[in-house]
Amino acid sequence: MIQLMEKEDAATAADQRNEIVLDTRELNLWYGPEQALKNIALQMSEKQVTAIIGPSGCGKSTYIKSLNRMVEMNPLVRITGQVMFKKRNIFHKNYSVEELRTQVGMVFQKPNPFPKSIYENVAYGPRIHGIRKKKLLDEIVEKSLRDAALWDEVKDRLNENAYGLSGGQQQRLCIARTLSIEPEVILMDEPTSALDPISTLKIEELVQELKQDYTIVIVTHNMQQAARVSDQTAFFLNGEVVEFNDTVTLFSNPNDQRTEDYITGRFG
Amino acid sequence: MKQNTDQMNRMKQRLLLNNLMKHSFLFLTLIALAVLVILIVQVFTQGIGWLDWNFLTSKLSLNPDRAGILGVIVGTILLMVVVGPVTMLLGICTAIYLEEYAKKGRVHSFIQTNISNLAGVPSVIFGLLGLTVFSRMFNLGSSIVAGGLTMSLLVLPIVVVASQEAIRAVPQFLREASYGMGATKWQTIRRIVLPASLPGILTGMILSLSRAIGETAPLVVLGIPVLIMPVPDSLMDDFTALPIQIYYWTLDAVLTAEYANLAAATIIVLLIVLFIMNSAAIFIRNKFQKRY
Amino acid sequence: MANNNLGVKEQIQQNLQKRNKRLMEKAVPLLLFTAAFISVLTTIGIVLTLVFDTFQFFRKVPFWEFFTSTDLSPLGKDPSFGILPLINGTIISSLIAMCVAIPIGLTSAIYLSEYATDRVRKLVKPMMEVLAGIPTIVYGFFAYSFVTPILTYIIPDLGAKNVLSPGIVMGIMIIPLVASLSEDAMSSVPNSMREGALALGATRFEVTLKVIIPAAISGIIASFVLAVSRAIGETMIVTIASGSSKNFTFDITESMQTMTAYIVEFTSGDAGSGTVGYYSLYAVGFTLFFFTLIMNLIAQYISRKFREAY
């Protein structure tokens, strides 16, 4: 009993300490005439994993890509509303996308290393941001690869082409690449959908590790994955947030009938 | 029964016709290739006896026995020294602009149409352009620079189109990965897109240079004099190049029959250079084929 | 903490504030545009050059004389400037070239697209590319020193310079162009159409004749038009092997001059700037440019329509 009390106390204390890093307010997004996101409002706390689930075409991928403005690569996109990152609106005209993306990193659905050596892949970020000292770069590469749990596998072949790695290794390399510039937030857009079960497990373990230091948003179509790795979960349907709650509650005791239908596998 | 045999006969006829046509198609195709073989054999038999070390290292002379093409080779090399960098710079920049910056706009389609029309303009017209603009307006005369600039404009479309294809073949996910790291557009182009498309660009570059090496008309129009030219030693010198020398020797074969052999020997040199360049292009294309 | 190595983060943030990076992002597209605009300037340059000096020419030679006179003697005591002999020479040499290039080019395309096995195709196509890559000056030499002497065995009256030999060689040079463009058009006919007809019991030849060629006809015609444009603009072969007599004749065993050859002959001679002869270069060049431009536009129009068909 006392133990349980202590745990609850710790939990509330953690909630208070964790301030909101990403605050989405009334976000609407259109692809041409088609509305893909409707009035999204979500808060993501520091050093928490937020999972975003929902059937394909529900807007979850669009949403995560708008958090670092990658969605704007499509010229047809039009956005209203706000996303506050550390109290600044990322869509404000004075907010440079380059600055945003150094702090909000992204891991993509398909592993997408550059056709360069493993070393150059990780050193790319620091290099483009002006870090040239060989010694510092070496340190960054090693640290990032260690943090991405890849160092032991590749330390002897840093100069080989990244395309010689397996799919799972490539994805961890992409994570290392993201870590190299020390972002605050890591966005992961279905990072395991192209991987085999063992590689998937490794990435999931890695997410648990990274959570110590980073705020993580992960889109997944795999509900078990969401349940395993996340602290809070948002359920998207047709461009809207149907339900947003801590993961345990959302999966054990959903408020909305549609959420229940989805997590019990009745559709999607 | 009769109907059946009729049908059988018609079928036989149709198959016979099919077979006949197949073989005549093959035969006609082979004619073109036979001509290629004849051309090469004829040039080699006529010229190979004249092609020796002396021929490559001596200066031009009226005496066919003493004439060599050292100055001609130097002229061609210096010409490429101008054409190479100018075409590469203009071609790659144009391609990057079209593929990465001006995509799908009016400016894009205007420049694109313009380039494909330029590719269809006869080379002799480029000669007139060079004669008016570079030789006369800029007062470059018939120097290597004038010839090189004229030639650069002529082969520019080849490099642009090849570079565009190479840039287009760089997968979008590589660009996304770079932008996702906070890279700017130019950083992404310079560090990701260009390195990935370099083999394709280089192939196009070599092909355009091999076109420039064999092109004659624009240089003749620039008014390169029919004299025994000394070996050029600066880019502002008058010059002669392999194809021009072939042209003059062929024309003068009416006066001195041996000149035709000199022309043939020079053609061998030209063809070998082209062969090496094209092999290099094929080598690059095969070696760096897509790895993603 | 992730950022116990505070240096990295700080350095990145500092670097992001630098202004020269932002300046670069603005300057680069401008520089690239300037480079891209050179191709436009080239076109403008060509047109202006031709128009300006052609205008000078027509101040001295009446327009109607230029386009109707069959007499061309730019260096005579009493020079006359009729372009008809040149147009005649251009058309006749191109016609001869087409008589060679179209049948052989088209049949090669049919053979490669419909009959050839992959192995044959892999052998023949590179050879076609070699044929296309040989400089025209080499073809000119070949026409003059090999084809003409051979033809003299068949036609004893043939002059050392004549339009027949360069016409034939020009045709051979253009075969790869017709073959590859026509083959592209034919192999882009969907396989389902081919298989449908074959399944009905048609022979390969019948399929080619009744299905493939009709379906690919606009692409094939576009390749012919481009071939004509290429022949009209071709210079060195005719300059070397067809000579420089400005005859207005239809006898293909005689020497004729094309528009391109006239330009080469006149510039490599000593036409002083400012003479009527010098300006006539541009008038002829303009006519040549006009002809090829029209041909290219027609080809583009046809192949654009063709692309919409599927």
Q: Overview of this structure, please?
A:
- The complex is a heterotrimer of chains A (268), B (292) and C (310).
- Chain A is α/β, with parallel strands linked by helices.
- Helix content of chain A is 40%, strand content 25%.
- Chain A has helices at 2-17, 60-66, 97-103, 118-128, 134-147, 151-154, 167-179, 197-210, 223-229, 247-252, 257-263; strands at residues 20-31, 34-45, 49-53, 77-85, 88-89, 104-107, 185-189, 215-219, 232-237, 240-246.
- The termini of chain A are far apart.
- Mean pLDDT of chain A is 89; it is low at 1-14.
- Chain B has 292 residues and is an all-alpha fold.
- Chain B has eleven helices and no strands.
- The longest helix of chain B is centred in the N-terminal third of the chain and has 46 residues, at 2-47.
- Chain B is flat.
- Chain B starts with a helix and ends in a 5-residue tail after the last helix.
- Chain C has 310 residues and is mainly α.
- Chain C has two domains: 2-60; 82-308, MetI-like fold, CATH 1.10.3720.10.
- Chain C has helices at 6-17, 19-60, 63-68, 84-115, 118-133, 136-154, 164-187, 191-199, 204-233, 236-242, 259-268, 276-308, and strands at residues 72-73, 80-81.
- Chain C has a two-stranded antiparallel sheet with strand order 1-2.
- The termini of chain C are far apart.
- The chains are: A alpha/beta (268), B mainly alpha (292), C mainly alpha (310).
- Chains in contact: A-B, A-C, B-C.
- Chains B and C meet through helix 1, helix 3, helix 4, helix 5 and helix 6 of B and helix 2, helix 4, helix 5, helix 6 and helix 7 of C.
Low-pLDDT runs of chain B? none
Spatial ordering of strands, largest sheet of chain A? 6-7-8-3-9-10
Radius of gyration of chain B: 25 Å
Would you identify the regions of chain A where 5 or more consecutive residues have pLDDT less than 50? 1-14
Number of helices of chain A: 11
Helix-strand topology string of chain A:
HEEEHEEHEHHHHEHEHEEHH
CATH class of the largest domain in chain B: Mainly Alpha
Distance between the termini of chain B: 63 Å
The assembly state of the depicted protein chains is: heterotrimer
Order of helices and strands of chain B: HHHHHHHHHHH
User: Could you name the CATH homologous superfamily of chain A?
Assistant: P-loop containing nucleotide triphosphate hydrolases
CATH architecture classification of the largest domain in chain B = Orthogonal Bundle
Q: What percentage of residues of chain B falls in helices of 4 or more residues? A: over 70%
Arithmetic mean of pLDDT of chain B = 90
CATH topology (level 3) name of the largest domain in chain B: MetI-like fold
CATH architecture annotation of chain A: 3-Layer(aba) Sandwich
Strand content of chain A: 25-35%
- Strand-pairing-aware structural class of chain A: alpha/beta
